[in-house]
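Quick start: read one record
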Amino acid sequence: MWEANPTWDSPKIVAELAMLGIEVAKSTVEKYQPKRARPTWRAFLDQHVRDLVSIDFFIVPTATFRVLFVFIVLAHDRRRIVHFNLTEHPTVQWTAQKIVEAFPFDTAPSYLIRDGDGIYSERVTRRIKSLDINEVITAPASPRQNAYVERVIGTLRRELFDHIIVLNERHLTRLMSSYLDYYHPWRTHQPLNGDAPHRRPLRAAEPCDVVELPAVHGLHHVYLPKQAA
């Protein structure tokens, strides 16, 4: 009970056990209290996973030695990249506008996790509050506190940008769009029990030929029963 309910105190557990017909002293319950009894960061993430998004920037160099900044918004529940955009010169105004564009028509989440980068100035904070979103700012030099978006950035690097030389902004936009067309309906995730962000249908096991179809300009492939292809 301590592990499953990090917000409970010992009287609550005593009362819960009593409802199960188990009489136990408060001192006995506290004897088995783990050292970390108060709510943890992990507990917060698990409890609010359906209401959480993360935002972050990462950089992509081009063939002409320009540096492009990619801004992404990740929904935690299904690992969906709900918005991305890019620019060579990110500004506070640009960032604030992209946050608004990411959540149209009352789709804003309850919580938004971000780091303490200076680009998220008071203007950005006001824009986030105007959407009725609660900011959760990670501690300095603590990327693990924003692990979901850090993981997806690593995935983008390993599965896309480590294999392609980006020519310019237009080329990068096409690459990102093409990858997300593959990522959301096809790419499997261990935390999603092997499913894709857009819930890939599980096909019945039966003898069939399997066909291979290229995705992301042939960098990845999808596989389907021949009749479904």
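The two ends are 49 Å apart (CA to CA).
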